[in-house]
Amino acid sequence: MSETISSPSSEGRDDAILPFAVEPLDVRGRVVRLGPSVDTILRRHGYPEPVARLLGEAAALTVLLGSSLKFQGRFQLQTKSDGPVDMVVVDFEAPDRVRATARFDAGRVAEAGPRAGTAQLLGRGHLAMTIDQGSAQSRYQGVVALEGQGFEEAAHQYFRQSEQIPTRVRLAVAEQVEGAGQASGTSSHGNADGHSWRAGGLLMQFLPHSHDRARLADLPPGDLPEGHALLDESRPQEDDAWVEAKSLVATIEDHELVDPTVSSERLLYRLFHERGVRVFEAQGVREACRCSRERVMGMVRNFSAEERRDIVGEDGRIGITCEFCSRHYDLDPAEVEAEIAGGQQA
Q: Name one GO biological process term (predicted).
């Protein structure tokens, strides 16, 4: 089911993915708005502001990419790098569950300053994007080198090298203060201190019927003999429709992606009303962890007997805390060993 936007609602919907298409320009995409879901994730761990912004961007990007899955599977974004934030993990489990966590050096984050950007915090390393349909044979992973770029450019690089689909991504994160600015009094999700985190993003891809029209003009030309240059006239030229679509998306300002008074429909209408934009049924998003006692037991079963003894605390219990949701699991070592022994006998 789809409809052409003619009179967009000004009332935004949080925690939702809105697919869209601009048929005259041969582009399709999605807009995501994260409110209570991302606020829960970021406030649960009390991340410093720069880390919260970085993880909010990663969550928005993961939802944009993971929501394209047409099956019950999982999309994971993970970074490993040498920056102040050395690891980020975001899981999106189709069709609507997201969880996220980040590991960081508090001292280095403080040295970087409160306005440190994503690229500065990540540093150098790699970003892996994994699609998991539930078995080793159905896993696909694309890896992008992190060389001082942020999540937007890393996503562009991923699509250039892995999918070769012309793609544009925009991401934004903001901390909303109740009673301040244009977002005053508009959020249904507030906290005792009047602050709440919001994240938003837009992904747009050029998908014409003709494959020739979709050729990327910025693909590397290959290994040319030394001293030779690729002639301009021999370079693939970007399609006029894609150039126009990119130019329109480039006008998006960060606040438009996170302002609760600017709905996803209104944003798309602002961008594409002259061409006509169609939207499809929105999909909800919720913060939800995958951890459970059964999963924790499965992890502990993979430990050696010596490793299991080493994780017993001074109180004689095994305590394991989920890095995503902070839920604490208190296990009796005797029960753990009995379950393992029972499983081996079976």
A: protein refolding
Domains within the chain, CATH numbers bracketed: 13-218+240-287 (3.55.30.10), 293-345 (3.90.1280.10)
Tell me how long the chain is: 346
The tokens for 103 are 């590991």
Distance CA 112, CA 122 (A): 11
The 10 Å Cβ neighbour count of residue 283 is: 17
CA atoms of 14 and 2, how far apart (whole Å): 20
Which of 6, 19, 4 shows the shortest CA–CA distance to 264? 19
Give the tens place of pLDDT for each residue, 159-174: 998 878 999 999 999 9
Helix (H, G, I), strand (E, B) or coil at 338: helix
The long-range contacts involving 273-278, CB below 8 angstroms and separated by at least 24 positions, are 273/5, 275/22, 275/24, 275/25, 276/4, 276/22, 276/23, 276/24, 277/4, 277/5, 277/20, 277/21, 277/22, 278/2, 278/3, 278/4, 278/5, 278/20, 278/21, 278/22, 278/23
The 8-class DSSP code of residue 161 comes to I
Q: What is the DSSP letter of 71?
A: S
pLDDT digits 0-9 by tens, 310-332 = 999 999 999 999 999 999 999 99
**Cβ pair 182, 259 in contact under 8 A:** yes
Q: Helices 36-44 & 49-66, crossing angle to 10 degrees?
A: 140
DSSP 303-320: S-HHHHHHTB-TTS-EEE
Stated pTM of the model: 0.85
